[in-house]
Design a protein that fits this description.
Blueprint lengths: L4 H6 L4 H17 L3 H6 L3 H10 L12
Helix pairs in contact: 2-4
Length: 65
């Protein structure tokens, strides 16, 4: 499973934003060799998306001047 389908179906926000946030979070986790990825034996993006959907990790959009 790449993206948590149940959470994705129930998500009422911007799908593009959460997809980009999950991708960036997965990149962060891979760079620091996050142990949660190894514990769950999942793909990086799946773990990152789960963190975002469960609000374990929050994201925000930065406005560029």
């Amino acid at each position: 499973m790449i993206f948590p389908l149940e959470e994705l179906v129930q998500f009422d926000g911007n799908i593009y934003e959460i997809t980009v946030a999950a991708s960036r979070r997965a990149y962060q986790m891979a760079k620091v060799d996050d142990p949660e990825i190894k514990q769950n034996c999942d793909k990086d993006v799946c773990v990152a998306a789960r963190q975002l959907f469960t609000k374990k990790v929050n994201y925000r959009i930065e406005q560029q001047d």
